[in-house]
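Figure 2 data, in text form.
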Amino acid sequence: MIGISNVMEYLPGEVLDVKKYYSYLDPEIEKLPENERSAVTELAPVTVHRLKDPSALELMGLMAGQRVLDASGIDPSEIDGLMAVQSGGKQFMPLIASYLQLNLGLEKGIIARNVNDGDISFFSAVNLARQYVKSGLCKKILVVGSSALIGGKYGFGADLTEPWCMHFGDGAAACIVSENNAADYEILAFHMETEANSARLTGTLNGDYGPIREPNNRDLCFAAEMDDKTGAFVVSHDEKFINTAGRKGFITEVLTEAAKKAGLTLADLDHIIPVHDAELIANWGCELAEAGVKDGAFCHLQSTVGHAGGEDTIIDLARFAKEGRFRKGDVIALAVACPGVQTAVLIIRRNIAQQ
């Protein structure tokens, strides 16, 4: 059985009261159309976590990866593969895999890859790791994902002068993928779809001025503790993405196809953990309830974690497991959509009883 073990999250210690911290954005929020204004404020998380450090991305990834190694009791020399995922931060070339490989004490000759598929990257990395193990290339692969969308304001992250930024949070997660009958979760299926939408003129970044731009509201940079200079800012609101991934039937169709790959139906899913995109969550929750999923199956921590790339789903998985929410045999679907529109679903089965 190829499975996932020792799923760990790392959330930095600084917790922001979103409405209080982002009160400097109130004048900008008032300028928005009424429907968008209410969406920004009413759907925003109550709290998010932040690591205010230029190297937030690297530090959080390192902490999550070290937690997994410590929990597993595996010596770094036993890890023969590394899949690294990043959102935000300042490290572009080389990307974060080389930093983690060095600072976690992993062997130099291992396969170390950076996986960059937007918010679905962690799922893509787990699926790649699964295939590497299945092929015999690797035996134990460490998967680490880090999102410094607030802490990453020093390089690539959220534009903190733009209202939708209050939906983002910092955080990291990690796990080990291996052939292990005692793994915490058995990987049942991976499903990916791409709508092939051209989401914006400049690819994955916001604005129509090329890959970097000035902050939207330069006069707010001081209040936002943000450098008044051009940067590569993640997209915080994309109407085309919302209209596609939020359309009636979208999530039901995607989850049905994913479940089918595992020989299951929607009714077999005990838990569905979505990406923390608040604009999608309300629609997805209502739609899945109408489709007949189990009561209480749709679960997430969006209000306390915010949108931390695709790592937020893994953070939820780790936290729910600690709370004792999962029973042995429970089937869990983790679903992420990101601009493009790319969608990925990872279906896993709890393989051990709650400790």
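Caption note: The radius of gyration is 19 Å.
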